[in-house]
Amino acid sequence: MKIPWFEQASRRRKFMIGVSGGMDSVALLHMLHEAGFRKVIVCHLDHGLRGNSSAGDSKFVSLLAKAMGYGVIVGKSNVRCMMKHTGDSLETAGRTARHAFFADCAKEQRCRTLLLAHHADDQAETVLWNLLRGSLGFRGMSEETEINMAGREMHVVRPLLGVRKNDIRDWMDARRHAWREDASNAVNDVVRNRIRNEAIPLLDDIAKRDVTSVLLRSAETDDTWRNLLDWAKMRASALDPQGRIHLRTFRELPSVLRNAVMADYLRAGGVVQLDRDLLGRCDLLSDVHQPAVVNLPGGRFLKRRQGRIFIDES
Amino acid sequence: MKIPWFEQASRRRKFMIGVSGGMDSVALLHMLHEAGFRKVIVCHLDHGLRGNSSAGDSKFVSLLAKAMGYGVIVGKSNVRCMMKHTGDSLETAGRTARHAFFADCAKEQRCRTLLLAHHADDQAETVLWNLLRGSLGFRGMSEETEINMAGREMHVVRPLLGVRKNDIRDWMDARRHAWREDASNAVNDVVRNRIRNEAIPLLDDIAKRDVTSVLLRSAETDDTWRNLLDWAKMRASALDPQGRIHLRTFRELPSVLRNAVMADYLRAGGVVQLDRDLLGRCDLLSDVHQPAVVNLPGGRFLKRRQGRIFIDES
Questions:
Q1: Does residue B114 sit at the A interface (CB-CB below 8 Å)?
Q2: Among candidates B14, B11, B10, which has minimal Cα distance to B110?
Q3: Rounded Cα gap, residues A96 and A77, in angstroms
Q4: Most buried residue, A209, A283, A307, B87, by CB count within 10 Å?
């Protein structure tokens, strides 16, 4: 299996890895070991959801890490209890617990790079889920990204994001590596499990093809649109020398580009909490028949005056 | 119900409308009549798929059209027989038969505008189906478009494309209009019916929301990307004064724009049957470390030479 990240990552750098004990994370751990990575810290959180099996998972991960000569941190949380107190879903409570745990590990280990074992089938499920939720375009997970976990900026890497689950299984089987069945499913919420076990198999059957690979390709396509948008923003030249939006230029741009230019302008001006609704109202300023002022959060205003659109404090 | 097309269409122009006898097309016919359209030609094709019900559908449609004072053309085809001879699917054979029929009607009536009753739920199913088939982005049907039917260029309008099926049903119920149950489902292929009856209900249930409206919004988003691409093509200036592709400019473009520029260049040069694979190989010419020639269909070549990419006959 040829995985781009493994080709270029330094064997001597320190990495943390989240290991549930399930097949995917155990595979990634073995791959690191086989590839000769030296300073790996195995981070395992017991979510307290699998009764006696939870303790078995923790023990399995600890022993494996020690056999490889890697450091190991085992945390424990009570996700059900968190759910009761916060009213959060299993998905949200589980994520909050993991983020807090990983942030603690990062602090203790003075290491901010965290490897996670999400693979291509997880990615396809995420793409479908985001699609059903109505996020714009085909959004998936990123192979490398910054994620704020409990106030700490973490560098998250998913080396297996391009690898299909079956290929991971074959890799594990060929080496006769063991893993804990169901360890990683425990924290899947109902929706994730239904997408995996009901929606994708049904869609495969209706379309008579591998819908997972179709979804993966769609996510790539979406990245290419975003690249186009970045290029177009540079070409738009919609700001005047004073950094205000030049109305006549702005007005001629296609709508998705107008929204992107507007969002960048507002963000640069310190406006946070941009949503589709606010952007829609700001966009109306490009129409001279519409009112010339839009209220911004924080008591500020976006105004159209003398052929320019700009933020005004009063 | 406020439908944009009805606001602006001339009541005195001649329109053909495809009427199966099912709820949607009967509703559109009643709307035309209620709105005072004068010259409507009702086109009904009996696909020969519903046995005795087929004759009932034809009779229902004829009587309704005559009662409204509209002209009516009833055609008959044997779709099962076509399938046997061509090996086509029900979907393909049905479409071929309808296209031939509508083209005949158009010739006879000297009218090239055809109204079809596809609605928003049809649109969402189409979007999902195109997604599962792996077409790029969220492709749906267009409200107004040119379609070549059996060699004849037809102007197809779908006034109900933004209207939900339930709203059409309410409109019909409020007026106590009758229709033929199942008349329009007869020519739905298995895939279309499974998307409608299995996939969308399951996805609604998993996501706990109206997935149809999410899909409709996604299709709109996709249109905005296409508008951006059109804008970007104009700005790319990747052709030299002789109309060849300027390598250095071309190379700096984002990939989706390179593909669009290349596709336009090849189409203008008479290359048909462009697919993703051919475009991918042509795109490699922008990398000077790759071979400088790509074979095109029809024994022609795409070449990179002296900072240009161009079609060469030999």
A1: no
A2: B14
A3: 10
A4: A283
